[in-house]
Each structure stands twice: as structure tokens, then as C-alpha cells.
């Protein structure tokens, strides 16, 4: 990896960002940032546009863009220009006049010899279809606050006073967290008021307590915020990435941990809570024997 790509990668990891997250913030494809970090300049667009991407990426990572722009190649190979098309030779004027005369003669013969229609019948267009009738709809539920859908379209929450909707057979659905969804077919042929009582969902049985976990010789990392992590055991890489907030990662000792945001990583060593791994926003590498 070249110096330009190495600087970008180290700054991104220190920020705790993945390539995908950085690309979303810049509204770019992750492949563009990956090509910059890998110094694959041939995979990037034309140099003026690529240098603009590099400047925006450096500012996102908190870097001075000018030294990085100095490392970007100033020229790139351009594709060969297409060969010049041969000039078309124009036809002589006499030949053009002869062709025009033949075309006029053929069109005149067509007008004289074409069959003529015996009778033309005009068919009146069908009358416009009558728009469907629309009726007001009122829906109430016990308990209130249920979401109301009509043929899959969301209308609002109960108690609901809906504006006029198209009549006919419609499918009504009510949804409320903690209650069974209710679905019914209704016939709208005039103003309609509907009332429903929702059934609560059965309560799940209490969860059994988790089995005790052997804590001897274990390191547990609890993510209390977002942070990039890399865990090694000697030359073996056990984990690298950005876990979900609230995740718990367990590893056998000894290990070496590097965090992009140590303040968001709580360390529990063999059952003992050691608190946050370090200060927020300051990347840190720590060994746990």
C-alpha cells in the first residue's frame, strides 16, 4: 500500500469508521474510497474528479488535504482517440435529379392505382365511465390508538374520521402493539361507522435465567457506544469491525485489543469490571495477559 492510502486508512480507523459508513457520509460509492486507500488510481474517474473526491475524504477524516493531493499522480493515461471517419462521397447532381424524377413518377402511379375506399364509417367514442362513489368512513377501537389500513393503505389511528373513500368491497386491517391484528372485509355503499374490540396477545412464559458462564481466563468487551475494534491473539486476528451498540464480545486470554473509541468499550476481565478501556475518541491499543 502506498503512503497516500496508508494515511487515509489509519485516519479512518482512528475515527472508527468503516468504508461503507464513510462513503454514505460523502454520498459516494464505497469502491471509490477503497480504490483511494489501495492506490488503484486506474479504477478512479478522471484526475480532476478523483482529486475532488480525495479532498472531500481528507476533510471528513480531519486531515489536511494539500499534502495528500501532492501524493496523487498529476497525469493519467488517456484512451486513444477514435480513428477519423472517412468522408462520404456526394452523388453527382445529374444522378440526384434522375432519382428524384423516378420517385415522383412512382408516387404519382401509386396515387392513380391505389384502391379507393367504398364507404367510411365513423364510430363514436365510448361514453366516459362514471367515477366511483365515495363515502366517509369512521373507525373506533377499544383500546384506541390502533393503526388503520384500508386495502393496505394507511389511513391513520383510531378513533379515525376518514375523508370520503371509494365505495365497494374493501379490506380493513387494525394493528396495535400487544394486540392481535384484526382484518375484516367491509362493504362501503354509504357513510359507515365501524367499532372493534382488540384481543391482547398471550403473554410469553417468563424466561429462564441464563446459565452461569465460566469467567476464568475470559475477557468480555461490552459496547456502550460505537467504536471500531480489532482483537488479536499473537499473530492471529480474532475480530475486526464495528459491533452493534449493546453487543458483548468474549475472548480467551491472552489478547491484544485496539479500539478507535475506547470510551465506548467497557472491559470485564475474568469477571471484574475494569470500566471503560480509555478516553473517548482517542484510539488505544492494550494487552490483556
How are the secondary structure elements laid out?
Layout: H1 3-15, H2 19-26, H3 30-38, H4 47-60, H5 65-71, H6 93-113, E1 134-142, E2 147-150, E3 153-157, E4 160-166, E5 168-175, E6 182-188, E7 192-197, E8 218-223, E9 229-233, E10 236-241, E11 248-252, E12 255-259, E13 265-269, E14 272-276, E15 284-288
Helix pairs in contact: 2-3, 4-5
In short:
The protein has helices at 3-15, 19-26, 30-38, 47-60, 65-71, 93-113; strands at 134-142, 147-150, 153-157, 160-166, 168-175, 182-188, 192-197, 218-223, 229-233, 236-241, 248-252, 255-259, 265-269, 272-276, 284-288. It is an alpha+beta fold and 289 residues long.
Question: Mind explaining what this structure looks like?
Answer:
This protein is an alpha+beta fold and 289 residues long. 25% of the residues lie in helices and 30% in strands. It has six helices and 15 strands. Strands 3-2-5-6 form a four-stranded antiparallel beta sheet, with no helix packed on it. Strands 11-8-13-14 form a four-stranded antiparallel beta sheet, with no helix packed on it. Strand 5 and strand 6 form a beta hairpin. Helix 2 packs across helix 3 and helix 4 runs antiparallel to helix 5. The protein is flat, with a radius of gyration of 37 Å. The two termini are 32 Å apart.
Rounded to the nearest angstrom, the distance between the terminal CA atoms is: 32 Å
What level of helicity do the residues show? 10-25%
Structural category: alpha+beta
User: What profile does the largest beta sheet have?
Assistant: 4 strands, antiparallel
Shape verdict: flat
Along the chain, the helix and strand elements come as: HHHHHHEEEEEEEEEEEEEEE
Strand content: 25-35%
| Poorly predicted residue ranges | 76-84
Biggest β-sheet: strands ordered side by side in the sheet = 3-2-5-6
> Count of helices?
6
Amino acid at each position: 500500500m502506498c503512503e497516500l492510502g496508508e494515511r487515509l486508512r489509519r485516519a479512518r480507523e482512528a475515527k472508527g469508521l468503516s468504508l461503507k459508513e464513510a462513503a454514505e457520509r460523502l454520498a459516494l460509492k464505497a469502491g471509490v474510497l477503497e480504490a483511494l486507500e489501495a492506490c488503484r488510481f486506474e479504477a478512479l474517474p478522471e484526475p480532476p474528479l478523483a482529486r475532488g473526491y480525495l479532498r472531500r475524504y481528507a476533510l471528513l477524516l480531519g486531515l489536511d488535504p494539500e499534502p495528500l493531493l501532492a501524493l496523487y499522480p498529476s497525469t493519467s493515461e488517456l484512451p486513444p482517440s477514435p480513428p477519423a471517419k472517412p468522408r462520404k462521397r456526394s452523388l453527382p447532381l445529374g444522378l440526384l435529379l434522375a432519382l428524384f424524377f423516378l420517385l415522383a413518377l412512382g408516387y404519382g402511379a401509386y396515387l392513380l392505382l391505389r384502391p379507393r375506399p367504398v364507404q367510411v364509417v365513423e364510430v363514436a367514442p365510448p361514453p366516459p365511465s362514471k367515477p366511483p362513489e365515495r363515502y366517509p368512513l369512521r373507525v373506533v377501537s377499544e383500546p384506541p390508538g390502533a393503526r388503520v389500513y384500508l386495502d393496505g393503505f394507511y389511513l391513520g389511528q383510531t378513533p379515525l374520521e376518514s375523508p370520503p373513500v371509494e365505495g365497494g368491497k374493501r379490506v380493513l386491517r387494525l394493528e396495535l402493539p400487544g394486540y392481535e391484528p384484526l382484518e375484516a372485509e367491509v362493504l362501503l355503499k354509504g357513510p359507515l361507522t365501524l367499532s372493534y374490540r382488540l384481543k391482547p396477545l398471550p403473554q410469553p412464559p417468563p424466561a429462564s435465567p441464563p446459565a452461569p458462564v465460566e469467567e476464568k481466563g475470559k475477557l468480555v468487551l461490552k459496547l456502550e457506544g460505537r467504536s471500531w475494534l480489532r482483537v488479536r491473539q499473537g499473530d492471529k486476528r480474532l475480530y475486526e469491525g464495528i459491533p452493534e451498540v449493546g453487543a458483548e464480545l468474549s475472548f480467551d486470554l491472552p489478547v491484544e485489543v485496539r479500539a478507535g473509541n475506547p470510551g465506548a468499550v467497557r472491559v470485564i476481565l475474568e469477571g471484574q469490571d475494569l470500566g471503560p478501556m480509555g478516553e473517548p475518541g482517542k484510539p488505544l491499543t492494550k494487552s490483556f495477559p
